[in-house]
Amino acid sequence: MKFAAQENLVPGTSFREKVENLRKFGYEGVELRGDGLASRVDEIRSTLNETGITATCICGGFKFGLLFPQKEDRLQSREEIKQLLSLAAEVGAKDGVIVVPIFGSPQLPDLTPWKTPLEMEEELLVEQLGELAEYAGQQGTKVILEPLNRYETHYINRLEQAVHICERVKSQHMTILADFFHMSIEESDIASSIRKASDWIGYVHLADSNRLLPGLGHTDFRSGFAALKESGYKGWMSLECGVPGDPAETLAASRRFMASQL
């Protein structure tokens, strides 16, 4: 398993400085922000080539409207995700793009007894993810489906729910994201949930129980990491969390803590 961090968490006045600091703190990869990414491709590629740090995937930067009622919003979401999948290929972020279908409450109408909003959401999502996964395969990247906790979205809160969607889409160009913070809220047993979903886990986010750096809360990372290792996971584990204090000290300290949990 390899450690990375989202670029916005790292100190530095330029992308190059951030990446050089990441390497200094002991990390091997950087997770890219999708906002404004197209204008930074040359800078990112040259920096990564010269530093040896790897781009892991892309987070954010598109309209989270795959499950909005307006056709135009859904189309915009798909097109923006496709653009990011293309950019992921350009910068070597082979794990692809993290996709959250929707934040907040349902936007679709209740059409029972024909279909409930959740039933319609599933059908819409499966259809669109099939299209996006096919496009991802053409680019040599992947779609990463992320479950979020119940306070951020009403839909897809647990790994098993994401697995269900993946099994319906049936694409090798699609994976799911296991986020330790969201799992600490939604999963009754993080390690057990990881083992059950292991065939589909393709990316991992790290944050402690208080959504700060690993080692600053009470999440049991050791058992979760063990479950990942037992499942044969060899991919990225990337920080998505708050970074208190002096980042130069706390990011390095958290990296040492995570190594001690392996």
From TrEMBL:
Which keywords does the record carry?
Answer: Isomerase
Gene3D superfamilies (UniProt xref): Divalent-metal-dependent TIM barrel enzymes
Q: Which PANTHER family match?
A: 3-DEHYDRO-D-GULOSIDE 4-EPIMERASE-RELATED, ISOMERASE
Domain Xylose isomerase-like TIM barrel, residue spans: 20-260
Q: Please tell me the species this chain comes from.
A: Alicyclobacillus fodiniaquatilis
Q: Which Pfam families does the protein's record reference?
A: AP_endonuc_2
Q: What is this protein called?
A: Sugar phosphate isomerase/epimerase family protein
According to the UniProt entry, its GO molecular function terms are: isomerase activity
